[in-house]
Design brief:
Strand content: 15-25%
CATH class of the largest domain: Alpha Beta
Number of helices: 10
CATH architecture of the largest domain: 2-Layer Sandwich
Distance between the termini: 84 Å
Radius of gyration: 25 Å
Structural class: alpha+beta
Order of helices and strands: HHHEEHHEEEHHHEEEHH
Number of strands: 8
C-alpha cells in the first residue's frame, strides 16, 4: 500500500513539474515576444533620430542590445522587406514599406480624416501648433499634430504621450470628469515635476482645474515644457471624446490668450457638429 502511494505521489510530482515547466516556457516566450516588439519600434525610432543608415554595430549601440540579437532582428525585417543593406559598406536603412503601410493606415482613420479640416482652419487662424489627442489610461496620447507656420513654434509628434497634470489637454480631460471621479484620479496621479512651473500639489491642481471648468478651457504655462503655453478643451466627435489644444511660445500665447481661447471654443463647436445630421 505504501509503495503504491509513493508511486502515485511521484507521478503527481512529475505531472506538476511538467506543467510548471510548460507554463514557464509559455511566459518566457511571451516576454521574448514583447521584448522583440519593443526592440523593433526602438530600431525605427533610432533611424529617425539618426536620419541616416547604420551599421550593425551602431544599431546594437543605439538599442543597447547584443549584436547577435540585432543581427536576428535585422535579418527578419530585411526578409519582410522593411530594411535593406548596402553592398558597398554594409550599412542598413529602412525601405519605404513602413511609410506606405503607415500612409494607408492614416488615410483610413475616419475620425482624423474628418477632423483635419477643422484643425487646419484653427491652425491657420491662430498661426500656432494645434494638437488632437485622447486620454489613454492616466496619460494623454497625441493623435495628430499640425505645427504652426511661424519660425518659433511648439513642435510635437503624433504618438507623443503626455502626463495629465502638466499638459493642457490632460487638464481638459480631468475637468470633464465629475467631481468624485476627478478627485479620485487626481489623488492617484503621480504629480511628477517636469519644469519649475509644474503643479505638484494636489490642492493646487484641483483649484487650477476648477478655474478651467469655469472658463470652459484649460491652461498650462510652462508646466510640461519650459516657455510653452497651452490652451485646451475636449469635444465629443462621433461619440469619441477628443482633446484639442493650441500650443506656442509662452509670451506670445499670453498676450493673445482671450482671442486664442475664443478660436479654440469655436473649433470645439465645429468638431462636435461633425456627423450630426440635420
Amino acid at each position: 500500500m505504501l509503495s503504491y502511494w509513493l508511486g502515485a505521489e511521484k507521478a503527481r510530482v512529475r505531472c506538476l513539474t511538467r506543467l510548471f515547466s510548460r507554463r514557464k516556457t509559455f511566459f518566457m516566450s511571451m516576454n521574448d515576444g514583447v521584448k522583440t516588439a519593443i526592440r523593433t519600434v526602438n530600431l525605427f525610432e533610432a533611424f529617425s533620430r539618426r536620419k541616416g543608415p547604420m551599421t550593425l554595430t551602431q544599431i546594437a549601440e543605439a538599442l543597447s542590445a547584443p549584436i547577435s540579437s540585432c543581427h536576428g532582428l535585422v535579418r527578419t525585417l530585411s526578409a519582410k522587406g522593411y530594411l535593406y543593406t548596402s553592398e558597398r559598406n554594409r550599412a542598413i536603412y529602412p525601405t519605404k514599406r513602413l511609410l506606405e503601410i503607415a500612409n494607408t493606415i492614416a488615410a483610413h482613420d475616419a475620425v482624423l480624416e474628418s477632423t483635419v479640416p477643422v484643425l487646419e482652419t484653427l491652425r491657420d487662424e491662430t498661426n500656432e501648433t494645434i494638437l488632437l489627442g485622447r486620454r489613454q489610461g492616466e496619460t494623454i496620447l497625441y493623435l495628430d499634430v499640425l505645427e504652426g507656420h511661424q519660425t518659433v513654434r511648439y513642435s510635437a509628434g503624433a504618438g507623443d504621450i503626455k502626463p495629465m497634470h502638466s499638459s493642457a489637454m490632460g487638464k481638459a480631460f480631468l475637468g470633464r470628469l465629475d467631481a468624485g471621479e476627478r478627485a479620485a484620479l487626481v489623488a492617484r496621479l503621480p504629480l511628477d515635476l517636469y519644469t519649475p512651473n509644474t503643479i505638484t500639489e494636489r490642492a493646487t491642481l484641483e483649484a487650477d482645474l476648477a478655474d478651467g471648468i469655469a472658463k470652459g478651457y484649460f491652461i498650462t504655462r510652462g508646466e510640461n515644457v519650459v516657455d510653452v503655453m497651452g490652451l485646451a478643451t475636449t469635444a465629443d466627435v462621433y461619440g469619441e471624446i477628443m482633446g484639442v489644444a493650441i500650443a506656442g511660445p509662452l509670451m506670445r500665447m499670453m498676450v493673445g490668450e482671450a482671442k486664442l481661447a475664443a478660436m479654440l471654443l469655436s473649433a470645439r463647436t465645429r468638431l462636435e457638429t461633425l456627423g450630426v445630421r440635420s
